[in-house]
């Protein structure tokens, strides 16, 4: 009598065998004793996939948030009191975690579960921290989709198409129609996603507006200390049309350039006036402020990793910089035939110049000799006292409010300037300046939206963008969209058909016929290849014994017991 008993299935998985050999010193071919995964394996697979998707979101966020790294470091400084590039450890840990999870996901291994959990928990912790410190930055995700949505659609379509191989095998083997329905819904959602896209750069070339002017925000702070003369000179060298600065009023009424509330970050006040280093910058006299060094901090901290690119002469010049006054900055703008945008910080109520800050600023403008029509300032207050000067507001207002207040220009954060709003403002002759714009992708979508000017910390970067990074007509995009959807659907249908044919072949497979065929050709070399093991069993009554022989090819299952066979 010959019995057939179910044997373990040996699957040819070269990469999996290699990885298990490295991690577990097990170099035999990978084997499974059962078809169905345990609940524990399924749970870990779900955790692994969740970690991958969360890290994918986290990595994408930091890629697009690169536009605002300067703002992030400044926010962290205001909390910690220490100025350093906090994005480096975040980017490094994100890269390591994403690479690790991607490796495990591709190999479909639930190895090193502690590492998976650690990566997942650290990512969640990072999300919570960013939401606490930098909550407004989440808006950049939606803004970035105006540039990346068409490309993300192609990537998502490829991923869902590739997933059809696993779904088809699972559905056909287990007859899980609910899984099939969910997959079809997801596939259709991805195929029709472009209907919801709003991409300014999907326009005809002849509708593209002129290149937006670039305003040097605090000069060129990535190349020289912010709000210093050398920084503004660098910005002018890189072709900016205007200069933007932050204005504070000193104790004796001299407007000077300073972004922070204190002088600690950008001067050596901790050495010159250690007892007053945490005092408000406006409570120093101009003589005291002028005695401080405003450039050495940049050389020592190298906040943008650019000091090594500077010549010895440039470093010497930066190291001798002092705090810049408003008059000096406006005179430089006048000589360069440029305009100026001033963000004025009003002194606190207990300041002696609290009521005269406006006249102090106006006096500095007149002393600089620049045309008042080329000077714009915020906040939008004391409009009745302003004659000849341009005023703008940082608030997003309706057209009704704009007309009531007589405003002709807006300075908006990019997260508040949607494509629809920009078109409405421009149609009503309201000029729009968007800030901060430091990355080519953001500059490109604002260019396609028709924005007249942008304020940037990186004019040297935007100078290298002579044209939007991508531009496509609506007809061209529709062709790409529909073609990619049709190709994806054809591949998915083909995969399901192939998997059904493949599974039906396995189900109709008769191992007894294979065994008899192998016995009939016992002398052939194929017998040695097909033979997996010889099982000798002894009958319970001890009267006789039989030779149990199970012969089958690789990747097949002996599912049933069969009757006797005579030799």
Fold topology:
Layout: E1 9-10, H1 14-24, E2 31-32, H2 39-64, H3 69-80, H4 87-107, H5 113-133, H6 139-174, H7 177-192, E3 213-217, H8 229-237, E4 242-249, E5 255-257, H9 269-272, H10 286-290, H11 296-301, H12 312-319, H13 326-335, E6 339-345, H14 357-368, E7 375-378, E8 390-391, H15 399-405, E9 409-413, H16 419-427, E10 431-435, H17 440-449, E11 453-456, H18 459-462, H19 474-507, H20 511-520, H21 526-530, E12 531-538, E13 545-551
Parallel strand pairs: 3-4, 3-11, 4-6, 6-7, 7-8, 9-10, 10-11
Antiparallel strand pairs: 1-2, 4-5, 12-13
Helix pairs in contact: 2-4, 2-5, 6-7, 6-17, 6-19, 13-14
Give structural notes.
The chain is of the alpha/beta class and 567 residues long. The protein has two domains: 14-28 and 38-202 and 487-494, no CATH class; 213-464, Phosphatidylinositol (PI) phosphodiesterase (TIM Barrel). Helices cover 49% and strands 11% of the residues. The chain has helices spanning 14-24, 39-64, 69-80, 87-107, 113-133, 139-174, 177-192, 229-237, 269-272, 286-290, 296-301, 312-319, 326-335, 357-368, 399-405, 419-427, 440-449, 459-462, 474-507, 511-520, 526-530, and strands at residues 9-10, 31-32, 213-217, 242-249, 255-257, 339-345, 375-378, 390-391, 409-413, 431-435, 453-456, 531-538, 545-551. Strands 3, 4, 5, 6, 7, 8, 9, 10 and 11 form a nine-stranded mixed sheet that branches. Strands 1-2 form a two-stranded antiparallel ribbon. It is elongated. Mean pLDDT is 82; it is low at 1-16, 18-27, 30-35 and 516-567.
């Amino acid at each position: 009598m010959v019995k057939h008993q179910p044997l373990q299935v040996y699957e040819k998985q070269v990469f999996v065998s290699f990885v298990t050999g490295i991690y577990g010193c097990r170099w035999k071919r990978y084997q499974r004793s059962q078809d169905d995964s345990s609940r524990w394996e399924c749970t870990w697979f779900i955790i692994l996939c969740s970690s991958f998707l969360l890290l994918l979101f986290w990595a994408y966020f930091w890629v697009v948030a690169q536009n605002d790294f300067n703002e992030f470091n400044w926010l962290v400084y205001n909390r910690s009191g220490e100025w350093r590039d906090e994005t480096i450890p975040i980017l490094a840990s994100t890269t390591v975690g994403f690479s690790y999870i991607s490796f495990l996901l591709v190999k479909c291994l639930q190895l090193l579960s502690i590492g998976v959990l650690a990566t997942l928990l650290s990512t969640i912790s990072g999300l919570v921290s960013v939401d606490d410190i930098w909550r407004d930055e989440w808006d950049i995700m939606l803004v970035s989709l105006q540039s990346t949505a068409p490309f993300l659609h192609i990537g998502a379509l490829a991923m869902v198409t590739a997933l059809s191989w696993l779904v088809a095998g699972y559905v056909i083997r287990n007859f899980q129609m609910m899984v099939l329905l969910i997959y079809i819904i997801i596939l259709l959602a991805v195929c029709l996603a472009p209907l919801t896209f709003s991409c300014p750069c999907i326009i005809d070339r002849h509708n593209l507006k002129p290149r937006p002017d670039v305003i040097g925000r605090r000069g060129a702070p990535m190349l020289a200390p912010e709000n210093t003369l050398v920084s503004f000179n660098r910005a002018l060298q890189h072709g900016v049309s205007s200069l933007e600065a932050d204005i504070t009023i000193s104790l004796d009424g001299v407007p000077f350039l300073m972004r922070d509330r204190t002088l600690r970050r950008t001067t050596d006040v901790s050495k010159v006036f250690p007892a007053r280093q945490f005092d408000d910058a406006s409570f120093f006299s101009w003589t005291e402020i002028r005695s401080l060094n405003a450039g050495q901090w940049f050389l020592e901290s190298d906040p943008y990793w650019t000091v090594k690119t500077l010549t010895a002469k440039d470093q010497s010049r930066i190291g001798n910089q002092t705090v810049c006054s408003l008059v000096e900055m406006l005179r430089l703008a006048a000589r360069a035939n440029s305009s100026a945008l001033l963000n004025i910080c009003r002194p606190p109520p207990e300041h002696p110049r609290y009521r005269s800050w406006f006249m102090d600023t106006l006096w500095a403008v007149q002393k600089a000799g620049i045309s008042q029509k080329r000077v714009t300032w915020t906040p939008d207050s004391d409009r009745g006292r302003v004659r000849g000067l341009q005023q703008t507001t940082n608030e997003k207002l309706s057209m009704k409010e704009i007309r009531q207040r007589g405003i002709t220009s807006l300075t908006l954060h990019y997260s508040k300037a949607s494509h629809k709003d920009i078109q409405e403002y421009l149609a009503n002759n309201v000029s729009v300046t968007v800030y901060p714009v430091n990355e080519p992708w953001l500059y490109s979508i604002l260019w396609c939206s028709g924005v007249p000017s942008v304020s940037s910390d990186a004019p040297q970067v935007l100078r290298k963008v002579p044209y939007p990074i991508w531009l496509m007509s609506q007809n061209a995009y529709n062709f790409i969209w529909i073609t990619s959807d049709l190709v994806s659907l054809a591949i998915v249908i083909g995969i399901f058909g192939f998997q059904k044919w493949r599974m039906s072949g396995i189900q109709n497979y008769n191992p007894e016929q294979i065994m008899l065929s192998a016995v009939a050709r016992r002398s052939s070399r194929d017998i040695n290849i097909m033979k997996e093991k010889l099982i000798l069993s002894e009958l319970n009554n001890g009267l006789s014994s039989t030779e149990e022989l199970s012969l089958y090819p690789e990747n097949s299952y002996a599912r049933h017991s069969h009757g006797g066979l005579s030799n």
